[in-house]
Amino acid sequence: MSPIVSVEHLGKSFGGLRAVHNVSFNVEPGEVLGIIGPNGAGKTTLFNCMAGMFPPSTGTVHYQSENVTSWSDAKLARAGMVRTFQLMRPFGSMTVLENVAVAAAARGAKERDAMAQAWEILQRVGLDHYATRTSKDLPTAGLKRLELARAMALHPKVLLLDEVLAGLVPTERQPVIDLLLSIRDNGVTLLFVEHVMQAVMALSDHVLVLNHGETLAYGTPSEVVANPEVIEAYLGDEVTNVDSQ
User: Fold this and answer.
1) How many domains does the chain have?
2) Would you state the pLDDT for residue 239?
3) How many C-beta atoms lie closer than 10 Å to residue 164's C-beta?
């Protein structure tokens, strides 16, 4: 089976700043890849290059065996590789239902079909009771779910999730983790940048660790948290918390 995503020797520099350097990995269909590392390690830049937000300086990105390195974010999203953002920017004056319907319409759905699809997705992510309220009325946890709902309306095959748990209190995290597991179980491949090790351990088949823009480690979650270099560069005392969960 061919990888659904293949990143080869990817690099991105901004002037003299080398944000990402020589990063390579493959993701199999249905796999969940967690991406971790210290702040400034290049995680979001990697996602931006993969998702067509800006072109990499070096290397290639293949999606479903096709070279998509030069594709725009819109073209990639229409093809099924969809990125979410840590800082959510919904249409504040629209209802929650309309926010999701706009995404469905972007995939070519007619208005009635887009609204029907949006309603089904809101039920799935647990936001149906907010459907007629404006998105600005949502709490942080609701905005996170709305971001996921809008992404799901694009019928993704691959989801790039940027810190989907950021800003959530511990009691709000597990329901979102369960939702992500259900999305994976429905055949969507997940790549996610995250600092919450509970999620990394619960979700990931493999973990990629970045440090100073380069690959520090790659392996299963248990292999990564036991890696002395990862502990020194990033995890530190957090390993104790992971082991106790």
Assistant:
1) 1
2) 46
3) 27
